[in-house]
Amino acid sequence: MTGSARGIPGGFSQPGFVVFILLLFLCTSAASAVDPVSFSRDIRPLLADRCFACHGPDRKRRKKKLRLDLGIKETRRVISPGKPLDSELLKRITAEDPDDLMPPLDSGKKQLSLAEKELFRRWIDDGARFDLHWAYVKPGRPQPPKAGAEDWVRNPVDRFISAAHEKRGLSPSPEADRRTLLRRLHLDLTGLPPTPAELDAFLADKRPRAYEAQVERLLASPHFGERLAIYWLDLVRYADSAGYHSDPTINISPYRDYVIAAFNSNKPFDRFTLEQLAGDLLPDASMETRVASGYNRLNKTTDEGGAQAKEYLAKYAADRVRTTSSVWMGVTMGCAECHDHKFDPFTMKDFYSFAAFFADLKEVGHYSGSPRPPELQVPTGRLKARWLALEDELRKLEQSADGDKKRLEQLKKERGELQKSFTRTLVSQAVKPRVMRVLPRGNWLDDTGEVVEPAIPEFLGRLEVKGRATRLDLARWFVSKDNPLTARVFVNRLWKLYFGAGISSRLDDVGAQGEWPRHPELLDWLALEFIDSGWDIKRMIRLLVTSSAYRQSSLLTGKLRELDPYNRLVARQSRYRVEAELVRDAALYISGLLVDEIGGRSVKPYQPEGYWKHLNFPKRKWQHDKGSGQYRRGVYTHWQRTFLHPSLLAFDAPSREECIAERMVSNTPQAALALLNDPTYVEAARAFAQNIAFLGGESVDEKLDWAFRRALSRRPSMAEREILNKLLAAHRKQYLADGKAADALLGVGLSNRPEGAGDEKADLAAWTSLSRVILNLSETITRN
Amino acid sequence: MTGMQDNYPDQTRRAFLGRTSGGLGALALASLLDPRALSGDEPTVLESRGEVSPLHHAPRAKRVIFLTMAGGPSHLDTFDHKPSLEKLNGKPMPASYTRGQPIAQLQGQKLNCLRPQFEFRRCGKSGQRISTVLPHISGIADEICIVRSLHTDQINHDPAHTVMNTGSSISGRPSMGSWVNYGLGSETSDLPGFVVLTSKGGRNPQPIAVRQWHSGFLPGRFQGVQMHSTGDAVHYVGNPPGVDVKRQRDVVQAVQGLNRIRNQEVKNPQIETRIRQYELAFRMQMSVPELMDISREPKKVLEMYGVKEADGSYAYNCLLARRLAERGVRFIQLYHRGWDHHNGLVDYLKICSGLCDGPTAALVRDLKSRGMLDDTLIVWGGEFGRTPMAQTNKGKVGRDHHMKGFSMWLAGGGIKGGISHGQTDELGYNSTIDKVHVNDLHATMLHLLGVDHRRMTYRFQGRDFRLTDVGGEVVRDILA
Strand A375-378 vs strand B398-402: parallel, antiparallel, or unpaired? Predict the structure, then answer.
């Protein structure tokens, strides 16, 4: 496609245009006549998708010096506001002659549909108003609208949702039953299903605000931070290995614990941002903020012999731009590494200027093994509390004149001992910044590009700072009140966590190719609420999960299936399989095996023999944990980027080589095989069976009740009992006849192997089969 | 075409699951008896089971066997004969070639030329020039098309593999096997559509990341599945201890029964899908052992490949590749990880040839004798080539990584056999005539499968991604 032969002729091919004008009278749909055409919602996405590649921000690819991404000034020669029929643009998109047609047939772009052409006509007719892309405009604070159903409204979130329902003739789904509600809340806020005791307590609580009390209880749970951390760790691409080639282990787990603790203590998001990007530069820098600054070291790094340091420093710089712009801004600035962005106004210079913020980091292009300085040695897990208390006491003792000398000596000795068990972690350290240049076409060998200073993307403004801007300045800009993106992007992602899809469904791109938010006023309102609350994350989550919208049933009726299959209008709740880590957590928790300590080193669950055989330089063997480390939550599993644990992989955990804002959710035979046969789940089933035998009551019926309530928060139906009874009887008989098989099954895993007579073992083996069934149920791993 | 989204679980999807769901049981039974039965009911040759349906044009190949010689075989000692290097042996490499060029382990070293380490001969009726270190591949010279003008973007193994597999050096993009299954769907309901087999021998084996066969942003079911010759052939495909086939079936059936009961109440398409996946998983537990069991292969065949037992050797994997191809697996990728010859070039080349040369030729011949070479595309090559310059700082002489020019060969489905395409310069440094970028290779592979590489896209982060990134021209000269 050259396009060079295509001028912008004065004449145009009449017939197609006339046909179009005739046709559009037939096709104008009733729906489109209701809403006025909105540039941001209707026109800009079409321009971006079909036109910007040749008539957009990218200088090099631009054809005929025509830009359609700025405004009427630049487009006056093809658009005459108010006069669609005189506008070249309309003539071109409706042309019949393929030489005149836009987008060109050979461009690979989809042709505009008749309805889309009509949108252009009406937009030009209305005056062809251009607005800056919605996400780049500072949010206004809309008033929550009048709701369609006032008695349904519990908080302002519901007003926006209800108003949207009314507009589309929808009504909200009924509230989910209490059992479902509690289970949903538990999985959403802690990632663990409720225990029967917790369920009973909630069912028995007849106070009007019983539900809100549960929300408070779960927000205060130490498991809250673990649950939310899973999402954040995907964004920042946290992993325990370097990522390239020999993929050696790196020291970084204290950063993971920092994230968990930050969410648990409800650290304001602005502070959370500053600490990660610039924890080393803060005036009140502390051990904690330095650990947080490990964020800047989470990029992949290489040990490969023959890697040229300069090339890899360029790769690391680009990696940080991609990730940081995605995490805080929700944009795809990475596209501007080799050329100006094709859809959004990011230039190559913006890309390298953004990279320059990180040019002060002390690092090398080529590493060899571990450690990878700068690193810090810090206390973690149980050690941390002791360390903090000790430091505190030491300080007090040293400050007081008549300090107990003996005690002081004792404490100092203990401090020395504790330090021996410290954990290393990668941190940021500022040194003299490297020179950062624009790399022509992204080529690291080319030193001819302009030298750039740290700067935010030009179209979003300039940092008012003295001297060279720093990472701290960048972080402050992210969380300044004027930043249009950060709060929107974060609340949009929170919305996804609690409703199944973002208000703007592209969690990784709110730019021109993103999606017009389904409830734009709600998104803006939430963003400002977030900022005005002092970036209070728990407050925002509380707001979302106490709404009536959140409490709806997730059942999909025939009518909704047709009107809103993706649940964008939130006339019900969503249902989905839980994340990979939570599949593991549920099995361990239900079976009673879970060791629910918070934080600590990364751990190694059972993994198939030989899975690491392709790691080399040096060769390594996966040594699975033998003690309590075997039964930790998935968030603590050792994250090997090139060989992620196959059970996590089977349930779509990402390798964390790049920022992931939304995981794929697949449903594959590999996932079924893992849940059926991974020794983790077989052992969990046996432990569950032991608990059923021990705690579940006398009769089979009682035991089934107990097991179902533990795993699914409900009792089994008659039909379900029948299937399970049959399985139980058959397997009891078989295992009685085949004692060896029973021993083999019961011998899976490291935890307490049961002793007992033949019939006891056969009984336990049969219940293990039954427990395997329960752990494999769709319902067990579904949030609904 | 915008991508289907797995992420909206309440939406039933038309691809694969949707389309093969109806009467899976009966079809599966038929396919067990004859793996090609599934393709028998296709109304036209353009109909596919994937997202590209109808195909963009009539396909010449139905499946791909990609033989990855990981580490980067020396093109200068296998397929690209450079007599000039003979003359310049030991003399400095002209600086006009190397000035300002990226370099790997030779950073800071003297750059002297190294002559071809083996004799080259004209082979077959076609008279293609091939090194004597590959006697068996020399024997199939008339079947293969040698491309001597490949070039890539990355000079280190890990990123160069990523380019070869995904068309880009940035992680997170889908691999070619995933793209092919996304576009064409699978022809087997008992095995994954994309299978990876690895073997080793030669110099210190290359580490290979799961990323190399990952589905990236495509739905997870298009991910490559690694098969192993020891332990479980596929992760978790073996029953737990103390659980025989019958007991496992009981468990699976109870899961299915309970899921069905639940689904009467909640009517969740994801449950229907999960029921099918459990069925598939259980069938894989049956079919994988059958696949791996080579005891019924005739002695003659085993000898031809040089297979002694199921030992995970490259020879065994070549035989498995044929068995996978017979069973309808769409994309089969073999890795041999011993080709990184920084030192001991002569010895290690002989070792690698000893392990790979015979079985590769046997695979081509075996497919041909079964009439399967016509619709099976075979590709042989590494992630890059090696320098015309000697590397001497690690013991016996070797060659360093080289990305500006190297060789690969293709054979089978739609490829013109017995020809050579493209050239490097006199010293084998730069690809000069009829240059073929990795994106061009991918474009050509897709073309042979009936797919226009520019039209098979998936929208991610607001952009329509494709295997060939922003490049790719079909290499028409090598098409039959």
Answer: unpaired
Q: Chain B, 282-321: which have a CB under 8 Å from a chain A CB?
A: 284-285
A to B CB pairs, distance under 8 Å:
274
The radius of gyration computed from the CA coordinates of chain B, to the nearest angstrom, equals 23
Q: Are B346 and B132 in contact (CB under 8 A)?
A: no
Dihedral angle computed from the Cα positions of residues B270, B272, B277 and B278, in that order, rounded to the nearest 10 degrees: 120
Cβ-Cβ contacts under 8 Å for B53 (sequence gap 6 or more): B46, B47, B185
CATH architecture of B49-229+311-478: 3-Layer(aba) Sandwich (3.40)
B462 with A332: Cβ contact below 8 A: yes
ipTM of this predicted complex?
A: 0.90
Per cent of chain A over pLDDT 70 is 96
**pLDDT score recorded for residue A22:** 54
Q: How do residues B155-201 score in pLDDT, each as one tens digit?
A: 999 899 999 999 998 878 999 999 999 999 989 888 999 999 998 77
Q: Across the interface, do B461 and A658 touch by the CB < 8 Å criterion?
A: no
Phi, psi (rounded to 5 degrees) for A553: -70, 150
The ranges assigned to domains in chain B are 49-229+311-478
Look at residues B477, B468, B395, B465 and name the one whose alpha carbon lies nearest to residue B433.
B477
Whether residue B228 lies within 8 A of chain A, CB to CB, comes out as yes
Distance (Å, whole) CA B221 – CA B225: 10
At residue A178, the 3 state secondary structure works out as helix
Whole-angstrom Cα distance, residue B101 to residue B97?
8
Q: What is the gyration radius of the CA atoms in chain A, in angstroms?
A: 30
Q: Which residues of A touch B258 (CB under 8 A)?
A: 720, 723-724, 773, 777
Any idea what the Cα angle at residue B91 is, between residues B86 and B94, rounded to 5°? 100
Return residues 246-265 of B near A (CB < 8 Å).
Answer: 247-248, 250-252, 254-255, 257-259, 261-263
Q: How far apart are CA A291 and CA A288, in angstroms?
A: 5
Give yes or no for residue B41 having a pLDDT over 70.
no
8 Å CB contact between A385 and A375: no
Q: Of all helices (H) and strands (E), which one includes residue A378? A: strand A375-378
Q: Cβ A655–B158 below 8 Å, yes or no?
A: no
Count Cα atoms within 13 angstroms, Cβ side, for B51. Answer: 20
* A304 in contact with chain B, both atoms CB, cutoff 8 A: yes
Q: Kindly report the nearest CA distance between residue A246 and chain B, in angstroms.
A: 6
User: Is A553 an interface residue toward B (CB < 8 Å)?
Assistant: no
Determine, for residues B270 and A745 on separate chains, whether the beta-carbon distance falls below 8 Å.
Answer: no
Extract the tokens encoding B468.
């060939």
A178's tokens: 């209490």
pLDDT at A14: 53
Q: Residue A146 gets which letter from DSSP?
A: P
Helix (H) or strand (E) holding A264: helix A253-264
Q: Which of A 426-465 lie inside 8 A of B, CB atoms?
A: 445
Nearest-by-CA chain B residue for A620: B207
State the DSSP string of A449-502: SPEE-----GGG-----SSS--HHHHHHHHTSTT-SSHHHHHHHHHHHHHHSS-
Please tell me the distance from the alpha carbon of residue B340 to that of residue B121, in angstroms, as a whole number. Answer: 24
Backbone angle region of A442, left / alpha / beta, with phi > 0 → left and psi within -120 to 50 → alpha: left
Instruction: Tell me what pLDDT residue A400 has.
Output: 82
Distance CA A527, CA A486 (A): 8
Query: Residue A382 is encoded by which pair of tokens?
Result: 């149980």
Q: Name the DSSP letter for residue A78.
A: T
Asked if A109 and A50 touch (Cβ cutoff 8 Å), the reply is yes
pLDDT band at A16 (very low <50, low <70, confident <90, very high): low
